[in-house]
């Protein structure tokens, strides 16, 4: 059986290596010149832009973070009358609505402040929290307003209720009165609240303001809601009843704008007459702020945004990354040939607060609206996977749409990456389940490759969607050779055998390629080491659990819920993270594969060393000891959290004890097998 397991592991590793080379065949890097845009279109002829921001839980995604994101895009260098921001609150929380009522008031001062002083960082938190902040005559006054808003919102979140002293307008009281005793996040009617309307609401200087609309779609326990894809489809329909802008920007709740001219960069592609008319969307990378010096969790996702995206750009185009995508609205309504003559977005001549508009908006936000329609199948964001972004972009490219990757020097958007290991692994586990759902859907990577008439595109999507099968070879190599070593069994060629050196060359070659790409991009060796360790942790824990979860779901035993990644960070956690200390802290089963592997590899390495000393030869167990030693070095943070640390981020004793029991059980079973 051992040779069969090793053959399986090597076959999967070879498959993943071959598919990843497709990204490196023709990498494409683009540059735009915004100053040339005026030669193609007047500012008055810019298309309308609807911005979609999704949030789901006021306690995991603090409303002030969502507010900062919304304010940053409301302050875009874009015609105010053509800009609308729609916020989807899938948690159905009046606390989030209150936060945006406060944001609407603050925006009346923030927008003219940014416009007058040509502020570049238009996220208030980033602007006021900068290490080298810009100073203008009004800065202190605006900062005081922002802090006042922040304190009120955070007090409301802390108490879980809204004080009557905070309600200053009659309309606000009426809006909040919809939250009755029977109103729950899982069961409630739709709520559509227009907080700002262009042409009706003006800022402190008398200029107009963009539309700002709060939406909480109807939820019912007897109707599927399809997680984020369902929320985005409601935003598509509600915005169509109000502004129907031909261009749509999707953003995560924490992914704020870092460049006020980003929409103009997208228009340089979308309005360029020389571009392929099948261009469906422009994708910007996700860049994360607050990552510590050596990025211990590999949170910057370098391979995705610096290798994979440019590599796919030359083909049908990059995938949608869940945030930072500028879409033509018509891509959500059919293939290019079907939507070529589609209405490009009507000029709204009526108030978005009018009775008929709001009635229609509430209707299309209902949980029964999609029944017996094509929504989620042929229209909108597609259902069937927890990674609705990749799945939807895959199907759009099947239909003939193209995409472009735009990666400017100044990041267009900045977001947060998890800073504790538990959230990091849980997020990856959710992705892995979603990727497998795509891989085994009717639009598998093989089908995609055939339909798009591109073998390389098919290989790229195959590499993405089959990511979780990395769990198989990594798990085999993390346990099997070490268990054999503990039982004094040699399963690899001896050091004198040429096949032994083939293993060494392949290992060093793959790692060497990755290392060279990393350091040539200007990053330090320590950061590369942390990235490869974080990748191993993801594979061994998240991908393994995701693979098992998908298989259980596939046979109808279990279903995987959408677990929102927490954006809340405790101060002590932040301090440990900035020092490069791993954060365990909670007794979660996702740590068990890591801790069990750490124990087995350490004991196996010591056992192999003892064997080599007794026999005065390392020839028989050279490769096995190398693997065990490599794992031991990677597991140093785990040993530290198990044995030496005394802070709140240490590994819980419960997990350590269970891991010891599991390691002993595996050793006992292997003793009988060997």
TrEMBL record:
GO terms for molecular function: cellulose synthase (UDP-forming) activity. It is found in: Golgi apparatus membrane. Mn(2+) binds at residues 228, 252. GO terms for cellular component: Golgi membrane. The keyword Membrane applies. Keywords: Cell wall biogenesis/degradation, Glycosyltransferase, Golgi apparatus, Membrane, Signal, Transferase, Transmembrane, Transmembrane helix. The chain crosses the membrane at residues 464-486, 498-515, 535-552, 584-609, 621-639, 651-669. The active site is at residues 90, 389. It is a multi-pass membrane protein. Residues 1-22 form the signal peptide. GO terms for biological process: cell wall organization; cellulose biosynthetic process. Its main location: Golgi. It comes from the Eukaryota. UDP-alpha-D-glucose binds at residues 60-61, 90. SUPFAM superfamilies: Nucleotide-diphospho-sugar transferases (SSF53448). Belongs to the glycosyltransferase 2 family. Plant cellulose synthase-like G subfamily. Thought to be a Golgi-localized beta-glycan synthase that polymerize the backbones of noncellulosic polysaccharides (hemicelluloses) of plant cell wall. This is Cellulose synthase-like protein G3. It comes from Vitis rotundifolia (Muscadine grape). The lineage of its organism: Eukaryota, Viridiplantae, Streptophyta, Embryophyta, Tracheophyta.
């Amino acid at each position: 059986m051992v040779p069969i397991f090793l053959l399986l592991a090597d076959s999967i590793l070879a498959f993943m290596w071959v598919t990843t080379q497709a990204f490196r065949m023709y990498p494409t890097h683009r540059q735009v010149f915004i100053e040339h845009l005026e030669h193609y279109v007047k500012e008055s002829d810019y298309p309308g832009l609807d911005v979609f921001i999704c949030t789901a839980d006021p306690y995991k995604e603090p409303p002030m973070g969502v507010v900062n994101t919304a304010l940053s895009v409301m302050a875009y260098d874009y015609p105010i009358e053509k800009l609308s921001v729609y916020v989807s609150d899938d948690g159905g929380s009046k606390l989030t609505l209150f936060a945006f009522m406060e944001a609407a008031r603050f925006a009346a001062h923030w927008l003219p402040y940014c416009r007058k002083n040509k502020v570049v960082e238009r996220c208030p938190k980033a602007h006021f929290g900068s290490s080298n902040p810009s100073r203008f005559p009004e800065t202190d006054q605006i900062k005081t307003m922002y802090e006042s808003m922040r304190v009120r919102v955070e007090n409301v979140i802390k108490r879980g209720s809204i004080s009557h002293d905070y309600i200053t307008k009659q309309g606000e009281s009426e809006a909040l009165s919809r939250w009755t005793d029977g109103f729950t996040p899982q069961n409630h009617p739709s709520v559509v609240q227009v907080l700002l309307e262009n042409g009706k609401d003006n800022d402190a200087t008398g200029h107009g303001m963009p539309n700002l609309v709060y939406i909480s779609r109807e939820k019912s326990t007897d109707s599927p809601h399809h997680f984020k894809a369902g929320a985005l489809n409601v935003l598509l329909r509600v915005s169509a009843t109000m502004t129907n802008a031909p261009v749509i920007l999707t953003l995560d709740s924490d992914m704020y704008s870092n460049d006020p001219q980003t929409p103009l960069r997208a228009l340089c592609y979308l309005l360029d007459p020389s571009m392929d008319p099948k261009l469906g969307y422009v994708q910007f990378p996700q860049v994360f702020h607050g990552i510590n010096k050596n990025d211990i969790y590999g949170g910057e996702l370098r391979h995705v945004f610096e290798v994979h995206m440019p590599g796919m750009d030359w083909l049908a185009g990059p995938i949608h990354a869940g945030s930072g995508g500028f879409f033509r609205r018509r891509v959500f309504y059919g293939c290019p040939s079907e939507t070529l003559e589609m209405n490009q977005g009507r000029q709204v001549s009526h108030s978005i607060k009018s009775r008929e508009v709001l009635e229609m908006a509430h209707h299309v936000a209902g949980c029964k609206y999609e029944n017996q329609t094509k929504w989620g199948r042929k229209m909108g964001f597609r259902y069937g996977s927890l990674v609705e972004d990749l799945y939807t972009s895959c199907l759009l490219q099947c239909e003939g749409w193209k995409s472009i990757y735009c990666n400017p020097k100044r990041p267009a958007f900045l977001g947060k990456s998890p800073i504790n290991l538990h959230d990091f692994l849980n997020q990856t586990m959710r992705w892995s389940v979603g990727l497998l759902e795509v891989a085994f859907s009717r639009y598998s990577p093989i089908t995609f490759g055939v339909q798009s008439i591109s073998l390389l595109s098919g290989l790229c999507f195959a590499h993405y969607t089959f990511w979780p099968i990395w769990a198989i070879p990594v798990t085999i190599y993390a346990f099997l050779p070490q268990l054999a070593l503990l039982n004094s069994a040699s399963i690899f060629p001896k050091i004198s055998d040429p096949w032994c050196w083939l293993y060494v060359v392949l290992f060093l070659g793959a790692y060497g390629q990755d290392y060279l790409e990393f350091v040539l991009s200007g990053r330090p060796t320590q950061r590369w080491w942390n990235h490869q360790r974080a990748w191993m942790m993801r594979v061994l824990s998240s991908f393994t659990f995701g693979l098992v979860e998908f298989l259980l779901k596939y046979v109808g035993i279990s279903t995987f819920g959408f677990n929102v990644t927490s954006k809340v960070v405790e101060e002590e956690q932040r301090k440990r993270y900035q020092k490069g200390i791993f954060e365990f802290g909670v007794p979660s089963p996702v740590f068990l594969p890591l801790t069990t592997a750490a124990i087995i590899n350490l004991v196996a390495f010591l056992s192999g060393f003892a064997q080599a000393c007794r026999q005065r030869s390392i020839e028989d167990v050279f490769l096995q000891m190398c693997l065990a030693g490599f794992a031991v070095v990677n597991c140093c943070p785990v040993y530290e959290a198990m044995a030496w640390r005394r802070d709140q981020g240490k590994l819980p004793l419960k997990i350590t004890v269970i891991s010891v029991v599991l390691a002993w059980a595996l050793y006992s079973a292997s003793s009988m097998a060997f």
